[in-house]
Amino acid sequence: MIKIAKTKKEKRLRRAKKARYKIKTLEMPRFTVHKTLNHIYAQVLLPNGQVIASASTIDKAFKKQNSGIKTGNMDAATKVGKLIAKRVLDKNIKEVAFDRSGFKYHGRVKALAEAAREGGLIF
User: Fold this and answer.
1) 37: in domain
2) Domain of 23, in residue numbers
3) Measured between alpha carbons, how far is residue 22 from residues 29, 70, 75, 93, 113 in Å?
4) For strand 40-45 and strand 97-99, is the pairing parallel, antiparallel, or unpaired?
5) What is the CATH number of the domain that holds 85?
6) pLDDT for position 1
7) In degrees to the nearest 10, what's the CA dihedral of 74, 62, 96, 32?
8) Which of 27, 31, 103, 107 gives the lowest tally of CB atoms within 10 Å of its CB?
9) Are 54 and 41 in contact (CB under 8 A)?
10) DSSP state, 80?
11) What is the dihedral of CA 13, 38, 94, 53, to 10 degrees?
12) Cα–Cα distance measured from residue 118 to residue 19, given in angstroms and rounded to the nearest whole number
């Protein structure tokens, strides 16, 4: 049998699926992160899939406060982390499960997570 090489994205999605299965058993809101080369996105979802809050570098509120800065760096990720934490705490939710979507806990993902923790989220 011939082995078929998996792409980088397929490997990441496989890792994400394993983590999401584990988070599903916790029955708590899921704080999920997605990143591209130019932007970073964060959402908090209920176990049924309903979005509670979201923030990203393409968000109007983010662009208004940070006009002229680059959106694909750690500074932008930190600001998005603080913004999502503020929005989630406004909905009276303090504890979430962190879903890094198969990305390494490194760089922009780590900066976003630490900023959300500083903002008051517990995970």
Assistant:
1) yes
2) 19-118
3) 13, 34, 30, 20, 19
4) unpaired
5) 3.30.420.100
6) 66
7) -70
8) 27
9) yes
10) H
11) -90
12) 23
Q: Residue 8 domain-assigned?
A: no
- For residue 47, which amino acid is it? P
Divide the 123 residues of the chain into consecutive groups of 10 and give the mean pLDDT of each group.
Answer: 80 90 91 95 94 94 84 93 96 94 94 96 93
Q: Please give the pLDDT value at position 4.
A: 76
* Global model pTM greater than 0.90: no
- As for how many domains the chain has, the answer is 1
Contacts of residue 120, Cβ cutoff 8 Å, sequence gap at least 6: 85, 89, 94
In this structure, is residue 5 part of a structural domain? no
> What CA–CA distances, in Å, run from 59 to 7, 72, 109?
30, 14, 18
Cβ–Cβ under 8 Å, residues 28 and 47: yes
For residue 64, the model assigns a pLDDT of 86
Q: What is the pLDDT of residue 18?
A: 87
